[in-house]
Write a structure and sequence with these properties.
Elements: H1 3-24, H2 33-38, H3 53-59, H4 62-95, H5 98-108, H6 116-126, H7 132-139, H8 152-176, H9 180-188, H10 193-201, H11 206-221, H12 225-230, H13 238-247, H14 252-286
């Protein structure tokens, strides 16, 4: 029963991935013949396995290194901000309940129903030099309010906007699965709200927390729309940089090398996600 979807994934995903890897190593035949015929500054294989010329060119480039640094910084800041906000909303909804908590949760997942392009344009205009943020700041006497459009901080705000709904849904589901009896038992034993959160809710929400962090990291690493519309022209995140390398400079081999780097970073996060889930499954099996 698993074989048909595996074959489908292998055909539509596996073959292009293998072909792209071979192209980065300088193999220009077969499926790579068309793109190799139009690409510029390509490195041809000089051994049976290929060449690392394209990797050396990209990995030693100052432009790539700056983009890599920006990508890592934006990813870390975005993941921390998304996780903190989503956890706050999820804990508030779980412990408080009521209409206010539901309204806050609904407001947090509103960006889920708005395209990233619209959200990015809204952030761009709101934090522009003549936008609403600057206007309100001047109205209250803050004459040196920062202009966040076309900055890395604007990209972070956009990433939080687009990734917060998924994080809220996952963490809220995880906390909702904690039995009320455990919370009531902790309160009967004298635990305050802080102790309930630290000793009951958070330890039992380990898997949703890992899922939130992993998928948010992967989403930010591979993002294009938000950094392209809201971020600066240079340095950019790797998603924008590899697209520019392909489209503006006609260097598909170098852009694929950057894609390999993004894939490698995402794979590290994926390995950590799988290991965390396996560890939790073993703990669950040991307690039965």
């Amino acid at each position: 029963m698993v074989l048909p979807p595996l074959l489908l994934v292998a055909f539509f995903v596996g073959i292009p991935v293998v072909s792209g890897l071979l192209y980065t190593l300088g193999h220009f035949g077969g499926l790579n013949s068309v793109i190799a015929a139009i690409g510029l500054h390509q490195h041809t294989a000089d051994h049976w396995w290929g060449t690392l010329g394209a990797y050396r060119e990209v990995l030693t480039s100052d432009v790539f290194l700056r983009s890599l640094t920006v990508t890592v910084e934006v990813t870390l800041l975005s993941v921390v901000a998304v996780f903190a906000l989503a956890l706050t909303v999820a804990l508030y909804a779980r412990l408080t309940g009521g209409r206010t908590a539901k309204a806050v949760s609904a407001l947090a997942i509103t960006p889920l129903f708005l395209p990233a392009v619209i959200g990015s344009y809204a952030i761009l205009t709101f934090y522009a030099g003549d936008g609403a943020f600057t206007t309100l700041a001047h109205a209250v006497g803050w004459s040196h309010a920062p202009r966040l459009s076309y900055t890395i901080w604007g990209v972070v705000i956009g990433q939080v906007w687009t990734n917060l709904p998924f994080a809220v849904l996952v963490l809220s589901s995880g906390l909702a699965a904690v039995p009320d009896a455990l919370i009531e038992a902790a309160r009967d034993a004298g635990a305050g709200r802080t102790q309930v959160v630290l000793r009951v809710l958070l330890p039992m929400a380990g898997v949703p927390a890992v899922i939130t962090a992993a998928f948010t990291t992967i989403s930010v690493l591979g993002s294009y729309t938000v950094p392209y519309l809201v971020g600066p022209t240079a340095p950019t995140m790797l998603g924008v940089q590899l697209a520019n390398t392909f489209q503006s400079y006609n260097q598909p081999q170098q852009s694929l090398v950057m894609a390999v780097v993004v894939f490698a970073l995402a794979s590290l996060v994926g390995v950590a996600y799988v290991r965390a889930n396996v560890r939790e499954a073993r703990k669950a099996a040991a307690t039965r």
